[in-house]
Amino acid sequence: MEAEGPRAASEKEESEESRQVDLEDGKKSDISTDPETELDTEKPNESSAEGKEESEKEGIEGTIPGDNLSQPDLADGEKFDISKDPETELDTKKPNVSTTEGEMEVPENESSDENKPRKGSDQEDQADVEKFDSSKDYAGEQDTEKIPEPLGEEEVKSSVPKEPPGEGEVSSTPEGQEEGVEKAVESAEADTSSVQESKSSPSKKPPGEGEVPPIPEGQTERVEKPVEGAESDGSSTHEEEEEDDTEKPPEPEKKPEKLERKISETFFYNYEDLWSQPFVTSDSGIPINLLTLIHSFGYDCTKRANLQLLDSQTLLYVAGNQLVLLDLKTKYQSYLRSSSGGGIGIITVHPSKQYFAVGEKGWKPNIIIYEFPSLKPYRILRGGTEEAYAFADFNHYGTLLASIGSSPDYMLTIWDWKQEKIVLRSKAFSQDVYKVTFSPENEEQLTTSGSGHIKFWKMAHTFTGLKLQGALGRFGKTAVTDIVGYVELPDGKVISGSEWGNLLLWEGGLIKVELCRTGHRPCHNGPVNQLVLDEGELVTVGGDGYIRVWDYETIDAADSVDDTGLLEMDHMNELLIGKNVNLSSIVKIHELGQPIWYAQDSNGAIWKLDLSFSNVTHDPECLFTFHSGKIEAMGVSPVTYLMATTALDHSVRIYDFIGNCQLTEIKFKQGGTALTWAPRVVNPKGGLIAVGFEDGVVRIIEVYDPRGLALVAGRTNVGNAELRLKQAFKPHTAAVTALAYERNGEVLATGSKDKTVFFFAVEDKYEPIGYICVPGPVQALQWSPLSHAESMLLVLCENGFALQVPAPILGEQDTVSTYEIKDLPTQYFHFCSIKSQIKREEEIERREKKKQEEEKARLQWIKKQQEMGNEIEEEPEAEPKKEEPLPPIYVPQEPSPIVCGFYSAPGKFWLSLGGYDSGYLYHCAFSPIHHEISPESRQDEPFEVIPMENTDDNPIQRISFCTSKLLMFCGMKDGAVRVYPLQDKDLSADVMNGYWSFNMHDNDYGQIQAIYSSYDDRFLVTCGADSNIFTFNILSPEDIQRELKVKVPSPRVDLEKEKTAEDIEDPSVYSLENAKQKKEYDQIMKAAEDKKYKKRQELIILRHEFHHLLQRNMELPKHMQLHREEFEMDHRIREEMDRQTAQRIQLVQKELAWDQEKHRIGLQKLQSRFRDTLEFDTVVVHAIGSNHQISTYRLLAISERYYKARKQSQTGKRRTSKLGKEAEQRRESQKETSQAAGVTEEEMEADKLKKRPQLQGAIGRFGGNRLEQVRKIMEKADRAKAKIMQRRKEWDELYKSKPSDNYENPKDVQDIKEAQENMGDFKLKTATNYKIPEHMRMNAEKKKVQLRSLEVAVHEKKLTMNKWIISLRDLKVAVIEEIICLVQELKSIKSALDASEQLPIPPIPQLHLEETPEKKFQYDNNILLKFKQEEENKQRLSEQVEENASFTVFGGKFLHAPSLKEIDSSSRASSVRSMRIGSSVTPMQPKVFEIEKAEPTEMELEILKQEKIRNIYLQETLIKRINELVVTFDAELHLLRHQKLKLDTQMKCADLRHITWFEELLLLKNFEKHEDTLQECVNSLTNEVEEMQWKLDNYLSQMEDKKYEIAKLQECEKALYATFQASLGENNKFASFLTKVLKKKIKRVKKKDVERDRDEEENSDEESDDESSLESDEEDSGSEDEVFDDSVCPKNCDEGLFENTLQLREKRLDIEEALMEEKKVIDNLKKEYDALAKKVKVVEASLDTAEGELEAFQREKQQRLNELHVVVPLKLHQVEYMVNGELPTDLSQTLVFTNQSLEYLQQRIMVLQHEKLDQRELYKRARQQHKELLRDRREIEIRIQRLEENCNQLMLMKFGRVVDLEALQTLSVNTNLEELKIKMMEKEHIQAQELKRWEEKIFELRQRLMMLMKENTSKLQQLNSFCVEKQGLEMKLDALQNNLGAEFQGPRKAEIQERKRLITLVQLQAQEAEVLKEEITLLSRKDGRIFPPPQPPPDTKILN
Fold it and tell me: Which of 1537, 1516, 863, 860 is nearest to 1192 (CA)?
């Protein structure tokens, strides 16, 4: 039977989704316990069972990944009461969170009647699991309380489960409640936490992406806060209660103490769980380490405060998603990744330099505090802002952290960062906030600044608690400015910079004075970016490159001397950093005792500065230079590891990305926008780059190694590389956007925003070929690769056009008049959006799929019903559902921009677009038809589309390929790098499914501008718009070989003799085409000028002739002379002359414009001096019908008449003591040691795991049934062992989390505290025992704030009243205008009536002069003319002669000043007015004429009568309307006058209050110094007590650690003895002897002594042996009589066993020595603890004394304040203190008390009565529940005992004795033996294979030998036959010679011989055949070699 325990982690995952519990609405869980029984309601934790040391040993490093922990401090509505009976106690501990699987362990019910917290492994044995609905309400103090966030620990304890539906009985057992509690927490956390799994490893959930590791239980400290008034023994207070007949009086209630969770100082997170990892598509097979970051070359110099110092040699700054730590000595960079992957917003460093904070970016970013130099995550601050952090700052002591969020929330958050808690938070402003800082002297004050504002914050204690109050700074007369830099002064003032360079001194939220240099020169010629208060001097850092030092005391005492608000002063020192320097921030560090400053230059540099301003001051040193701003382009060398970059900072830089350094740079007048490195076909050395610039210039630049040049005198500082301009030309008029070399290197194409593409012939000097015009700005150029048949250029335009043109050839184009190529064949492609069509098709497919699924589900349901035998009625056909309309087809009006593209095949290409059409790769092709259609009217669609994941709002910006075309690199808009593996080098949807992605550059503004691989595909380089350049190693960093070095191209021959190419520096220089056009234009203009010159000469001749004719005309008699007008041939000539005259007049007016502007500015200054400061002048509004009047307040703008605050005394700053630092260092060293141990064990475990796959692989190769069985046995044993270990750990955590006996509900403790503080203790301020609450204590600063608030309130009241009075004045003006209109109409009516019928016309009211005082400052030309004439008359009296002349001259000018247009306009206006008057008068004449003309008829008389009646009615109506207007206005004035009288009363009361407060302020100023001294003393003692308490806690934790180490050593000793007993075996006859050997005590020499005496090893060994033998004899723990020799193994004893015993003895002695050392350490710690505890008591006594003195002083101050007279105006009906019905004369004994407070006290009585009844009911339910819990616990214990007995019986029946089931489960085979057997099998198999191979080789050689023998034998036989034949022929020849003619005698002898010869030959052949048969038979048996039998010699006779 298995031991019971928590379930295994693997089974948790299976049941995670099914373990959600519904909680019944309205239920409460108030638990009481009995002192005799204890019920543990805790949640098991999967962290280490032994605490911190165990977790460190396992390599956890103090952190466990899991779910987020909710904050322990909950609102009142979120806590649950746990009432305690004095006779019963319940230990409840806060549930902890599972740490391995991210879920909470839940005890489950085993049955409905007997519940037991069983945690078995079989899921089918679990009881019905109750479900929890996180959307429902939880039962707490209220019945229905919504929980908006994850449950806290206190909430968990009181959750009650709800019976699942379908159960027949209701269970209310405590186990069910525990289960509901824990499942409720699990469900709530699962529903509320935003878990984002790591994209690379789905099973891993790194914190920071919605899930953060919780704090283990072992890493928290418990802080107990005693309750005031409670007894030390914990006895509860008794309250009197009324007795009821049906209920016993409740027991006295004991209020629990509050337990506050506190994060341990030694707790750290695991960085591996935090940092963001690359995203890899699942099942893609792409390695996670495809790219590895090597180096960062860039620096985001425009980022605010992006330079921090950790020590004198370590710089810290942000680079995209990386945090770079730069070692200034070695130039080595260390990196920390962003945890969220969304980028890094801010960085800041702790004042102690021990920590630094990193503010992330992204959704709900975190602030991570890292420890330095270990770089371990120390704290994680969550929930401070929505999207990104803009700034953060630690306070002076480093205990608090303030952070500012960026758009959209701009949230200011104050953190207790060590506890990861938010102290305060508030919205800072509605616009960008740049900075936030704490005041160095008062940590309760903060300052924020930003866009157009500065705000002053204060942590104020209000009746609702601590609040964050902000006061917005008012600029007043000063122009509103963005404030980037400021600094708080010790006395509370703030001095800030401005955009125009002056300094602004703020006091009380207003500008006290504006500081400038003498001569009204600004302090800096640009914005002031930072201010630093350093050693009594003010240091300002300006954007003009200057650092100036000012006298602080002069600035602090500065005040405005005139109305301008400016104060001139000179700086003490200044330092010019350099030209073109824009300093944004500086940081200070002490190096060798000297202060050193490091500065961030926004123009791309980091400076090292010396601001000592002495005789030995060092010059500014530029440490590093970078690109400033966006990097526009980059290129990589085709032959070596070099890259080139350019940007708008006018520089081109060369980097060595193997050596990780910048080699050289060159600067020009304009910024670079495009760059490409010339390919090898152009320059085989790879030393040529082409760069395009923003002014349209293209420069060809050479890269070479200057060390290869000939030595030249005077040349110094020769670097590794240099840049030289080879050629410069300007083909474009706008910025160059693309450069591309043709594949053969013969043509260079350049594209620009001017919609042209220019071609150049690539030679030694680039020659222009021509250009073509394209439909839009060029985005990219690409030549077709070598695989294409023709060389074509792909031109991509921003506005959706793509073109393809062939390469032009030099000389074929006519470039005489223009470079434009008009006949170049061009193919166009105009992209037409199809994204909406794709979305529509996807929607249609989705709907069809949904319909099919619904139909399938319906059919399955029908089938199921039929199987069950249910009849299915045919349902009528339902009406078809009305489907939603499909998405409409949408085509954007503005085409989506083409971002990048590339060729795929001849005439085909891929495109990536931005805007609406992003999200896909489009495969397009140039159409062979439609050539005649204009490009603008084309609508081309792609023929293939590949969807790209997560690119709808994040388009691909750049695409490149590696050399082998197997990897496609993509640079994204959000700065991410994507890599797509291409299997067949072709793009398709299947191939593009898997990819690797990693965010490197900034996610907001770091879009990738270029991405390229190196020439050998080893490295990848990227550059972005965030100024960063990164280099990566492709695949594995181990592939980088040390011998890889960059090779800079060697210079050309005689390069030093060549002249430097002429550069184009003027941006207005003509381009090539414009120059050619200008040349042609100049030729045309020259011809025109020649023609004009000839015409002028002809005109001169004609003019001479005309003058001659005029002279002859004069000579004629007068009657014969012609008039001058007769010579005028055309009047238009004269008009032209008049026009020129008017132009000259206008020219004179322009010349006088300066004087006019001068007088206008003078008038404006007068107004600003005397009128602008007056917000409201006195305006008196009179009533129309009475003498009443009302006047406004003469109101000035809010001035700076505030009282100066006294400088706060410099108090001693709290610093960390030396002892604390040493203790902290010791803790760090211990932690490092434990971590090292943990890593070692982790490596051992990893080695074991590595061996198992080898064994399994061997089994797979040589397996059989036996090896398969071994593998299964081993796996089963491993699973059992892991399951047992997991169960043990969970049980340990379960028992460890058991709460203490004195646990009390924190809510009850808090309620008691609040009751003691706020209930039943009301004292008057005049009482002697009155204790002033902390939030009500008043000081001078608070009183100043009150006075300022009063002044502002008075000003606002008066301002409002003035606005009402002005509105009344405007109403009067409107009334007068209406009355005037009515009077005019009344006059017209009156003229038509008789005199007797006419009523008097009411008078028209007039405005008084005092009602419109602003008219005094209004004037027109007549007034000015009159004033001018008066001034001239005055001057005429003094100087008549000169004035006459001057008057005539001036008068003439003045009279002639109006132009002809003005005269015409005035005359036209007068004529119009006369026409209007005439038109209004003329209609009357016909009526008079008609009346006079004839007598009216009766009809006309009737009409006149009716007209008369109507006019009389209108006359009365109009007069009545006039009177109504007058009466209404007077009524409004009377009402407003009454309100103003009330306001006057309030203003008088405010003045009285102002006087009283001012008297209090004077009194408080007298007490301020003494109060500050007492408060500083209390603060210092409080800090000392806290520091000592921290040391005490540290000692306690160290002692606990040592106790744990001792326990581990004791366990090791027990394990050693167990090992020894196991090695002895059973019935070992030497057991007694070996036991004595093991237990023998030996005094060993210490290791230090051995090391010191190594030189005398022989002598020391002999002496130590003698001494050890003697000492061992004396101190032997065995039998003293028996003497034995432990150095010699006894006879028949196993020598291995004896040696093992000796080794175990050595280990035992080591353990005993370690135990002694640990005990000594514990004793020393106890002594230090006791001494420090005594010192704490002394300091606490001093603290109590100091607090008493401060309280006495506060009472004295309050008494002095009470002595001041306060005027309280009361009305008679407000006085209720009467004596005999009359108001007493002495009111000294009266009390001023509000009715609202009195009603509240009366209502409080009823509230307390209801609360008392509720508490009784609550207690009753708790008692009933307690009884049920006790009964259930007894039942569970009985069941456990019965199950244990049953288990023992079963073991006796099966095994015969009680055995250890865990040991039995973990039995397995000998792994080492099995591995050796497998290795032996491998060796045998290898040898058998080798033997077989050698046998085959031998057989082949034997076959070859046999063939050779056969061939040789046949040749011998043939030779033998030839010899025999030769012999026969010779014999035949001899016979023929001897017997000539014998052939003619008898039978022919030759025939007979021939026959015999043939017979012999046949016999020989038969013998040979037999021999061959035998040989074949023998060879087939492999018997060896067989020789043929000897043959008889041939018969000579036969032959003869």
Answer: 1537
